[in-house]
Structures are given as structure tokens and as C-alpha cells.
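Input record (one chain):
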Amino acid sequence: MKFSMIFEAQLSNPTPEREHQLIHDCIEQCVVAEEVGFDGVWAVEHHALKRYCHMSAPEIFLTAVAARTRRIRIGHGVVCMPFGYNHPVRVAERAAMLDIVSNGRLNLGAGRGGTLQERTLCQVDEELMYAQVEEGLKIQSNIWRKDSFEWESDLITIKPAPGMPPHEIVPRPVQLPHPPLFMACTNPETVKRAAEYGVGALIFGFGGLDSIREQKEMYDEAAKATDGSRFVSTEVNHYMSALCPTVVMDDADEARRVGARGQRYFAESIGQWARPNQPLPNENTEGEDNYAYMKGMADKILEQAKSDPALAAQATIAVRSFNVDHAYGNAQDAIAYVEEMEKAGVDEVMCLIQMGTITQEQCLHTIRQWGEHVIPHFRAKKKVAA
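The corresponding structure, as predicted from the sequence alone:
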């Protein structure tokens, strides 16, 4: 079992000054995470989603993290692979540079870019999104296998001009032929697709333990059934990292209060971008019973979805983001939750701590609680088993 953290760089009551501090705070969290025993960090890529995500250039953020750390894995999780966001050769060049700067610590994930707001910004062709994600993964796995690179398909052609020498893509990564490949998975079809591609799955864990178990079973069944014809690389990576929202304090009730408020902000801030004309997230919920509010909202969304076709298509993910039965509480509560993830067969627990209303002090305290109590518990179990 591995332990990592993921960063959306969420910000309530955003101002440029608070945004600048937020990025430095996230880097500090990564440094502390390495100090206390975490195995990796991940940073997402989103664009123009104010409040929900201020991480639009994760490769630069992760370069700063790599420069401040020595051991922890650096997870680019994920690169938006549709070509409007990132040309596939540029993805390869940046990934290789980050792998070199980190001395071979890079994990590289792929995704399609989650919202209409982002796709219109970057002029992404919605009909080609999934095909371009698959094509991008294939290009990443092939680009360093030979001294020069050419590619021709229905989606993209990469060739030198007549009379010019072939393209030699530099630099080359430390991990050859490429860093481990992953894919973001927010629904069952994507989980199956990741297994068919032979890449690791970064799964949406807001649905809780039952949802994680179901997605793990889906992934394993799809991996077992595949004939390998859709593998994007000869380097198969059947690995699952599951999201785990968490706040850990000595006072378990206080941790649940802080966690529920933070997750409410998370759910409402992405909900703002899920459909047109949605309200801004409520940034002033201190003192409210956010646990009760979250459970009520999940029921309300399901009821609305019965008569709203546009919402019905997104209801499952929306309801999951309002589920607050996670690793909120004291260290023993977190250990019990992770033990269930371990039984489900998850390879990596991906802690989501930094949510919009959770302070830097609360984030660092939670990171240290995991490092002092939760992670050592599982390290000791592993030693006994060995």
C-alpha cells in the first residue's frame, strides 16, 4: 500500500494575493509530506475554473516540488490529452524534462479535461476527446523508443518537411522507455478503458468504500478480459490509486466538522461549472451543520434528476461528491477507513486534504497525523507480513 496526496489548489474568497500564497502553501505541504513518509504527490490540470482549481500549469508546480524534495514520486495527474489543451509532443517534452529534474520520479497521467468551460477555452473537439486521449497515451509510450519520431494516423500526422532531417525529440526521460502511465477515471466506462489500455487508474473516490470496491472489481475484470489489443504501451501498469478525502485531528468531531465544510466547498465549487448558470459556492458556512447539509443535498440531487435529463446524466458523480463518509476523524478513524481500502485491493491511497475552506494549519496538521500514526500502522503491518 502506497500513500500520496493530490492537489486541486482550491481557493475560497479568491484574490491574486491569496492565490499566490496558496501555491506556496501547497508546495510546503508536499515538502512536509515527504518528510513524514508519504510516497507521492499528484497535481491536476484544469483551466479557467476559478475557486474550484487554480492548478492550470501543474508541470511548473511539480518542478518546484521536485526541486524541494528527493524521494517522493511526482505525479502529473493528469495531463489534459486532447490536442486543443496540449500537443502530444509537447506533453512528451515536458514530461521528460520533469522526469530528469526529479531524477526519475515522474508518474504521468492522462485525462480528457472535465468541463465545457475548459473545452470552449481551449477549442477542444468534443467528438474527438476520447480518441485523442488514447492517441496521446500511445504517442507518449512510443516517442522515445527510436532515435527519431514520426507518427501518422487519422487524428494527427507528425513528419518533417520534405528534404529536412527526421524529428529527434529531446530530452529523453530517466525512466525508459517512459514514466509509468495512468488515466483519470470518474465513471465506470473510464475505469474499464484504463484497464483495456493497460494503464493505471486514478479513481474518483468520493462515492466511498462501496464505490471504490465496485470500481476495483470493474478494473480487475476488464484487465482479465482484455486481449491486449488496446494496450497503449508494452509497459503494462495495472495499478489503482483511489481518492481519499481526509482531515485527521485528535478531536474526531472537529475533524469531521472541518472535513464536511471543506468537502461542501469542493462539491459546490465544481458544481458551479457542471452546468450553465449555477450559483457560486457558499464560502461562509462556518458554524453550519455541513454534515447534515451534504447528506440532504445528495437526496435533493437524486430527486431533481428524476425530472431533469441534463442533470440525470451527471447525478451519480454529483451525488458522490456530496458523500461525506470518508477518512474524517482521528487517526484510528483514518486507519479503519484505509484498512477497508486495503481489503478492496487498492494499491495507493490518494489523500485529498487541500480543499477550499481548510486552512494551511489544518492541512499540515492532517499531513503530520497521517505521517505519525496512519502510514506507520500500515508499514508495520507490511513488515510483519514479510
